[in-house]
Structures are given as C-alpha cells and as structure tokens.
C-alpha cells in the first residue's frame, strides 16, 4: 500500500459522483479553471483518485447551508486516494489535504471525513506512543488489571494545598491514576509549579511507603516552550505523566511535547464536539486518533459508556477499540490506552472490558468513587472487584454477594442501560 | 474589564436558561454532582457567571442528535463570563474552557461560540503580529495600495524549477505577492529546500533589478522543529514571509513559529469549514481570528466576496473587518491584514476595499490574472487600476474607458452579484 485513502460521507446538489470529482480536484492538482501547467503527466502523478462511490439516498433539502442549490441533494459515501509523493508523511499537511478546503466547497451540502487508511511509511516516520499500556504499568512499578482512576474536582478553583490534600485521600484509597481537570493548567489560583510540588510530595511519600507509584496526569497544556519547561519541572519531581488537550495545542504541539517527553502523554479531547456532534460536518474519532497516536499520545479519552455527554455507546465502543488497533497498514502498531470517563460507576466496568477483550484501559470515575457509601477507599475497591468479576467472567451481582464494597456500590448507583458486544481485539 | 466573556448561540431540550447554567458549571467549578469541596467561597471566586440570556425561538425537533430529548427545543443567545484568575492568559487553556467539553453536552442540541471579549491582559501577554500591514509593506522595500497577489497552481505537482519558472512570469508581470498552495509543503516532488532555493533566486534577481522585493509566502507547515529549520533556510535565502496552515499546526504551533520568526506569518485557514459550515455547531471567525492574531499571524485569509466556497458576502465582510479591529478591550491593537482569495477578479476590488475603507489588504487572484486576454502582466495591471479607481472613488466602468487593461478585464470576467456596505474601519 503506497497510497493514502480517505472516506467521506457527503451530500451534494450536483450529485455524489460529480461532487467527488470536485473534491478530488480541489485537494490535489485542480483549480476552478484548468490551467495550461496542469498537464496530463502532472495529473497522472499527482491527481487524487476516486476509488469508490456508494449512493445512499437523496433529500429534498440541503443538510447544511450552501451557495449552490439543486432540486435534490444526493447523499453517498466516497473513497479517494492520494499518492504518498504529494506530501510525504507530514501530519499537518495530511490534515490540510484530507480535511482542508473541501469542507467549504459550495458543491457539498454535507461532508464528513469518516475513515483514513495510511501506508506503513507513516508508522515508521512518526514516533507513536512512547509507553502504551505496558509502559504505563511499568511507570507505576508494575500493575495488573485496568487502571482505576479519577479526576480532581471541582474542575477549577482548588489551590495547590487543597489539591494535594484531595490527592492524599485518593492515594490512601488505593487509586491507580489521577488527572487534572482540563480547565486546570497554570492559573493564578493554582500555579502549575506549586501544584506539582505539593502533589508530587504526596505521590512520592506514598510510593516510598507502598512501592506503588500512583500516576498523576498533570495538565501541561500551554505554549510549546512552556510545555517543555513543565516537563522539566515534572521530571525533577519524579512525575510520570503529562496531560495535554490535543485540540488546544494542535497536532504539531502534541508532537513537540512527545519529542521531549520522558513520561507518558495523556491525551484529552476537550473541544471534541466540534468534530463529532454533527452528522453533516466533521471528522470521526477513528481518523483523529490515528493522527494523535502517530504524534505520540499514550492515552486517549474515548468518553464512557452511558456517559453524560451525547456520543452513543456504539461510538464509544468503536472509539475504544480503534486505539488498540494497528495505526497503519504495516509498520509499528503504535497502540494506545483508551480512557473511559464521564458518569462511570461499577456498572460500566464489565461492558467497558468486554468490548476490548483485555484490561489495557484506564477507567475514571468521580462520583462513582467519592459517593460510595463506605467512602472513597471502598469506592476504589468496588471498581477493582468489578474488574475482577469482568476478567473472570462472573456476573457482577453474583460476585457482589461475596464482596460487600461491590454490593454497596451496585445498591447505590443506578444501573444504566448499556448494549455493547464482545470485542475482537486481542485478549490480555 | 477583568473578566473574559463568551457568547453562544444554543438550543436545548431543557430550556436556554437551564442549559446556560449547565454550561457555566461544566466549564468552571462544577461536576454532575455537587461535591463537598465545591464551597460557596470557591464558587464565588471561580464559577462562570451567566451575564445575559436572550430567547430567540423554539423548534419541535433538535438541530443536532442528542442523548437528552424534550417536547420542544428552545433556542437563544447566552453570554457567560469567567474570572481571569481561573486560567490566566494561556490561549490553549482559554480554548479548552470556552470551546471545550461544552460542545458535547447532552443538554444542548446546538451550540456555537459566536463572540469572545478579552481583557487587555491578553493583548499584553501575547506577541501579536510582528509586521502587520506597514511592516509587510516595508519588507517589500515600500509599497502603496493593496497587495496584488496570486497562488501557485496547480495546487500540487509542479517541481521546484517549474515553480520558479512560473514565479519568474509572475514577478515580470508586476505581482506584489505570491503564495504556495496549502497542499504544497515539503513533498518528494517539490522539496521545500529546493523550492526555496529556486524561487528565491528569481525573487532576489528581480529585487536587484527593480528594487522591489516581491513577497513569496512559502508554506512552512510541518512539525515545530522542522518549521524552525524552514525559517532558518528561508532567512538564509532572504525570505520575507512564512505561510502556515493554522488549524493543522494548532494554536501552540502558530505561537512557536511566531516566537522564532524573523519574517511575516501568513495564516491559511485550511479546514475552516469544520468550524464555520454548520449554524448549529462551531466557532465564528470573529473568535478564532483573535486567537490567531494574539499568537502572531500577520495575514489571515478571509475568503473573497462572491467566492467559490460557501460563506456569504456578509460573513466575508465581517471577517475582513474583524482582523483590523483591536484584539482586546485595551492594550496593543495587534492588527492583521485580511487576505481575499477564491474566484477573485477586478470586479471584487472596489467592494473589498469599500468594506474596509483602507488599502491594508492582500487581494489574491488566479484565473483573474492568468486568464486576462492580454496576458498576466495586463492581468496584474488591471487589478491595480481597479484599486486606483476604488481609492479615488471612480466607477470601475468609467475608469476602464481610459485604461485598456481594466477594460479588457471587465469585458472578460463576468460581473458577480455583490452587496456590501461602507466599512467603519479607519481610513488609510
């Protein structure tokens, strides 16, 4: 495989086939009038090719406002391909090509990038995750099972000492993973350096006592130079994980972080709704997660089953599986860990595991831990018991009869409605 | 002004006022259950405030798919504010807050960020454009009137020598500004270093002969380290302008470029449709251009009047004006130059100037220059004559009677339908 392919769901007033030709032209050799310099030889080597067209329906009205109108709007799925020689393996230029001006074309009344297949040259050219699941476990001093995690709340407003006090409670409760909220970075109320010092003292004392290094994903999101200084500071305090809002710093920002990071990179998707909310415009997570993994994210948020946001369980399942599948057609697989989060309790642990068929995930709960009737420690224990039941294939209610913390949790948190199928990923 | 304000158009199954409270909570102190640590004092200092709510309508169906449903969906405009102390002046964290998780909330069936007002602290904390309009003219060795520009086409496929040959034709034709296509960066067919060497030789020879340094915006878009190497190479060849796809490299990537750039930064919006196409999800240009200017863009694309894409002339006018207005409530104004592009001919020059009330813009035409019946040189001359007529307030048809190049142009290119009003920006 030496070509890059992209698949789009689109709608057009001029028909899907004609629209596909416009997109292929706009995103390769074309301009709106054919120029003398656009020779047949140049087109043969550089033009994007239409690989496949499937018509899926028509509508009397356009999905999005558009300058060009028609009597009807045909909908379909189109696959295009580009030569690797058009732009090499540069991720930003890949983005500008597959997800560039085409989103504004008047010939399209809907356009969504839903799949992208890359040749192995991308997997070889980019560093990918430095740690992945096994490396993340190693950073903790070893670990089995999913990582049970939580997020510091309130999202913003706690000072460094208040944060450290909450962290002390959480590590005593047996937590594996803690993260800053994406709203908390380096604000005047909770400066990064002071938060790192206060929290690291707690984490390091706990590691000295127990041998377990709890992972804290400090939000390093900032300008490039400042992110690098943040990494230096974290390293000086024995930090093992840097969280970054991947959309806020951009693809090149993520890669710059990866290039100098001695620690795991925890990728947060704040702003993801812009790409995901509309069925008529945007980019699927299946596409974006490949770019973020190639650029170096070790962990990627995928929302949670039965979450408080809008993505469906089918999308969550597809997202979580996608980060555990090879990133390119060949070359290093560059697998990342999916991070479940948002309204998660013991009820979601088994389905979250089942759709992956392994334990290589991070499971974040907030109220699901802190609101346990026996306290935070029992909250963590209940989640670990749920993970044990899931791994052993035992029904959560049956397992709860021998495990009082789990039993209290299932009696406290309402059971959500979830339907996911067994995963095809490798077993752990 | 010490608070940051953001205005959203939104739609909700729970009503606009209730939805506004959810957004304010999610993007500041809240979580979905109120925690003990979320004290009144903490809320007072860190909670986002609802400043204004205007109800604009209701719909029986949701604009976007959403997990929460209702019997009707209320639509409205909501203004929220945040304390500067929540996150300081960090642009990526500003993005994660104003345009973060809120886009995914189940309580919203539409959400679009349409305005953002920043305190002067942002204008002081960030470098802003290094050159702006006057600096750009200085880089050319002096210039009056709008910059007449063009884009190398075909978009991708020409080699370095073919590109340089086209540049030679264009500089001989009297062009002021040339840019790479956003698809052309550092691909195997046209490596950046070879293109820079070949093109710069033409530009420098022309400058030696005429004293006029034509600006060529070389597309430096790439990973951070490579962009910095690209700047070094450009500087060694006397380059005066670096083009970057702002969405592809991200906000932190743009700022990293600005911090090391000895030359003007030309901001291209490839992918802009993701933010702009839907009335139900996204971010307005008025918001994004402030972030891009603070991070250092000297020039920003705004599309063109009567363009081949989908933005309306009213949006183009608003976009072009916005980059010439102060970026914050106080502090340095950080003005940038708007770049008009896409299907532009002599007909759009006067309206493009009229909506700004000054000449501080770049006007890019492709076919509008190369398809002039007397050749490229007459094409450039016709555009300059159109700019002269616009500045002097003379009707283009009347002026054309004394200027054969302009006359040929208005007889060749069909007159588009454009309606824009006189601008309120300062006169030049």
Automatic annotation (TrEMBL), chains A, B:
Cofactor requirement: Mg(2+)
Any one biological process term the GO annotation gives: carbon fixation
Keyword entries, A-Z: Magnesium, Metal-binding
Keyword hit for Metal-binding: yes
GO MF: magnesium ion binding; ribulose-bisphosphate carboxylase activity
UniProt-listed InterPro entries: RuBisCO, RuBisCo_large_chain_AS, RuBisCO_lsu_C, RuBisCO_lsu_C_sf, RuBisCO_lsu_fd_N, RuBisCO_lsu_N_sf
All residue ranges annotated as the Ribulose bisphosphate carboxylase large subunit C-terminal domain in the record: 134-413
Magnesium in keyword set: yes
Residue span(s) of domain Ribulose bisphosphate carboxylase large subunit ferrodoxin-like N-terminal: 13-121
PANTHER family with a match to the protein in the record: RIBULOSE BISPHOSPHATE CARBOXYLASE (PTHR42704), RIBULOSE BISPHOSPHATE CARBOXYLASE LARGE CHAIN (PTHR42704:SF17)
Family stated for the protein in its record: Belongs to the RuBisCO large chain family.
Name recorded for this polypeptide: Ribulose-bisphosphate carboxylase large subunit
Lineage summary: Bacteria, Pseudomonadati, Pseudomonadota, Alphaproteobacteria, Rhodobacterales
Gene: rbcL
